[in-house]
Amino acid sequence: MESLKKYGITKPVLWIIFGTLVIAGTWYFLLFRVQQQDLSSTGERINTLEARIDETRNGLGDVGKVREAIDSLQALKKELQASVMPREQISGIIDHILLKGERSGIKFTSVEPATNHLFSSGGQHNEYIHVPVRMKLRAEYTRFGSFLSSLGELPFEFSVNQVEMIHTPEFAPQIEIILNTRVVLSASDSNRGEG
After folding, report:
1. Are 145 and 168 in contact (CB under 8 A)?
2. Which residues of 62-88 are buried (b: 16+ CB within 10 A; e: fewer)?
3. Which of 35, 85, 134, 146 makes a 20 to 30 Å CA pair with 115?
4. What pTM did the predictor assign?
């Protein structure tokens, strides 16, 4: 204490300095630290919100992609609907297939559409009927390949699901072939070509 008196610092001045330091320390710890913690917490919230905004922006980009996909699928649906024939035209469809076969040198021994499929609605919401058509034919292997290639030119939806080839010596060089196919037909005339 004696050394402080040399500089003119008395006890009351020391108490004032000490009180000021206590008040400043208390202010720092109570007010400034709390404000720093609030700012830190606010910064974390801002970062979280920015991340959510980025996620939302990315999601909006995905919405555009989904819309493009929907438009593409609707265009594909229109294209497929244009190739689907009404069920009343099954005999014309079979005639198309037979004509393609004749042009390729195919001899049909039987063509059997599953006509029971033509008269079933397939459910309330089905616009299409899938009609299996079983064909038995005889042909040389290369002519059969030509026939299969020509089926892609048919003006309606047609697919070959199964091919069974049977080599019978009495028909050589021809082979017997059983084709299990499927024709997609519209459940009614009004469905053809609609979007």
Report:
1. no
2. eeeeeeeeeeeeeeeeeeebeebbbbe
3. 146
4. 0.50
Gap between the Cα atoms of 126 and 134, Å rounded:
23
Q: Give the integer Cα–Cα distance in Å for 71 and 76.
A: 9
* Helices assigned H by DSSP within the chain: 2-6, 11-27, 33-82, 90-103, 141-151
Q: CATH for 85-191, among 3.90.850.10, 3.30.70.60, 3.10.580.10, 3.20.20.80? A: 3.30.70.60
For residue 146, which amino acid is it?
S
Q: Where residue 1 falls among pLDDT bands split at 50, 70, 90?
A: low
Cβ neighbours of 54 (radius 10 Å):
10
